[in-house]
Amino acid sequence: MSCFNSISSCEMVVFAAVVALFIIHGQSAGDLNVLGNLIVAIGGLILVVAALLDYQDTAKEDEQTIENISQQIALLQKQMNGLKSC
């Protein structure tokens, strides 16, 4: 949904308000409660997926950092061994 990158926060609020007004027109309180709870549940699940994706990206970066540090340590050990033999 890269189309949301070009929308300002104010425009997003106006869009959400217009959608909400369109949806609530002519609905009973019970229907609105069910629909509202459904939308909240969907939003919660979307946030869980976003958090998991962010965590996975961070975990991959951490693994790469650990690998780089391990390689640097191995290189330093080789250099130290070379200095000891002199």
Description:
- The chain is an all-alpha fold and 86 residues long.
- The protein has one domain.
- Helices cover 84% and strands 0% of the residues.
- The protein contains two helices and no strands.
- It has helices spanning 9-24, 29-84.
- The longest helix is centred in the middle third of the chain and has 56 residues, at 29-84.
- The relative contact order is 0.04.
Task: Explain the layout of strands and helices.
Layout: H1 9-24, H2 29-84
Task: Note the main attributes of this structure.
86 residues; rod-shaped; mainly alpha
Condensed summary:
The protein has 86 residues and is an all-alpha fold. The protein has helices at 9-24, 29-84.
Question: Average pLDDT, to the nearest integer?
Answer: 91
Q: Give the fraction of residues assigned to helices.
A: over 70%
β-sheet strand percentage:
under 5%
The coarse silhouette is: rod-shaped
How many beta-strand segments? 0
Order of helices and strands: HH
Largest sheet: none
